[in-house]
Design a protein that fits this description.
Blueprint lengths: L7 H7 L6 H12 L5 E8 L6 E8 L33 H7 L1 E8 L2 E6 L2 E5 L8 E7 L2 H10 L10 E4 L2 E2 L7 E12 L5 E13 L8 E4 L2 E5 L5 E4 L14 H14 L6 H4 L2 H10 L5 H12 L3 E3 L5 H9 L3 E3 L6 H10 L3 E2 H4 L23 H18 L4 E5 L8 E4 L2 E5 H4 L8 H13 L9 H20 L5 H5 L10
Parallel strand pairs: 1-7, 11-13, 14-15, 14-16, 17-19
Antiparallel strand pairs: 1-2, 2-6, 3-4, 3-6, 4-5, 7-8, 9-10, 10-13, 11-12, 18-19
Bound molecules: adenosine-5'-diphosphate and magnesium ion.
The site of magnesium ion has 6 residues, from helix 2.
Length: 494
Amino acid sequence: MKWFDVDKAGLAKLLAKRGKEFILFELIQNTWDEATTKVIVTLVREGPKSRNAVLTVEDDNPNGFVDLTHAFTLFAESTKKANAEKRGRFNLGEKLVLALCEEAEIVSTTGAVRFDKDGRHTSRKRRERGSIFTGVIRMTDEEMQRCGEMVQCLIPPDNIITIYNDQPIAFRKPVSWGEKSLPTEIADSEGFMRKRQRMARVEIYDPQPGEFGTLYEMGIPVVETGDRWHVNVFQKVPLNLDRDNVPPSFISAVRAIALDWMHASLTVDDVNTTWVKDAFQKHGDKLSPVTINQVTDLRFGPKRVSFDPSDPEANQLAVSQGFTLVHGGSMSGQEWDAVRRAGAILPAGQVTPSPKPYHPDGTPLTLIPRAQWAPAVTLVVNYMETIGRQLVGTQISTDVTNDPTWPFRATYGPGHLTLNLGALGIEFFMGPLTEINHLLIHELGHHFSGNHLSSDFHESLCRLGAKLADLVLNMPHLFKSVVNGLLVSTPMAH
Ligand SMILES: Nc1ncnc2c1ncn2[C@@H]1O[C@H](COP(=O)(O)OP(=O)(O)O)[C@@H](O)[C@H]1O
Ligand SMILES: [Mg+2]
């Protein structure tokens, strides 16, 4: 016994919100699902004064309709629903088209059926091959014109010629293509639609002028994404019953594919769009490191470091050297994960480290025992410790290392000076005194501030310079050792 009847007029009213082009899309995709090589579509006004248009869609599929009752049976088990590479599944589209027709006829190899004001009639008509749909549909001039425009958005399979009002619909050359695993929906052996993950061909195209980026299912536009490129998926996508949308997660997955394949063509404008952010945010883990680097380059510039809470001065050093300092809040957690995995942004402490008395990997410096210091080294260290004590008011101890791989000439921690013979060179210890005082003032500045770029540091340097002059005048004996040594024998440089 039959459970349902369909109110055709009610169904037609529900469809009023859809653009009439859906009629063309439904009928054309049915022909594309068959072994068709040529489809001829015409849409013309019925007569000079008529409010109706006549639509015909004719294909040359040798088999025609296998079961013509499918033309009028809503949700009959479509033979295509288990096949991921065919568009049909609901056995609905054609009936929606019929709901909008004043009258219609389908003639195929297996028979013919007519629909008019008196109902449905089967007839003896037959075709040798292929099927033809003819429908009379109420349409305004604007609707007809829009159909003509929208039909040009179709991307015909490259083995089927589709002609609309005598003009072939253009084939499109992808700018990129490949295979990717994507969610799809296909029927299991009992006919129940199931979600599955499946490899599919994916093609990317440049939108034509006036077009907006759109997601396609095997050449049929599904939803306008507004992205930079069209993406055409060559298998069933998880469509809603209206065939005009997919879940947001599917859109992000497709965006990630486009982003990954097209990274070399991205612009600064692209990286600030929602589609790139969406792909990066949701699928950062699947993007290639090259893509992540490219996006990061465009977003933050090629010179960039992340804010490093473990080395505050490194952050300032980075900025002073022209790096963009990227703070945590500039990206989401997922984006940071992707960026870290790709090594696209390093912490400031690794790029512009502040001077520290140990190697970046934490290994301590190898020190030269005091007994092995050259006389000039001892002389300079004694001088620095004596003068330093006067300048900062505390005892200063000194280590000397000879490590050319440690990238600093000297460092200063509270009361402790480290000199790197490996970076300074023994000549430094020979004078002139100007250079020695220069280094001493700089290092002692760190007694008051660790941060080279702070005003505290700057003020301390000024104060230390002034104090040094006072010392020379008031305690000249402190300078005797160096005056008597080699240090002033070279003329002052500046
Ligand atoms: N041009 C055509 N040639 C052969 N069969 C067709 C044609 N148009 C429609 N059909 C048949 O009508 C039905 C349409 O259902 P289908 O396309 O699977 O549903 P939907 O498009 O609603 O998801 C299928 O059984 C299909 O075989
Ligand atoms: Mg269909």
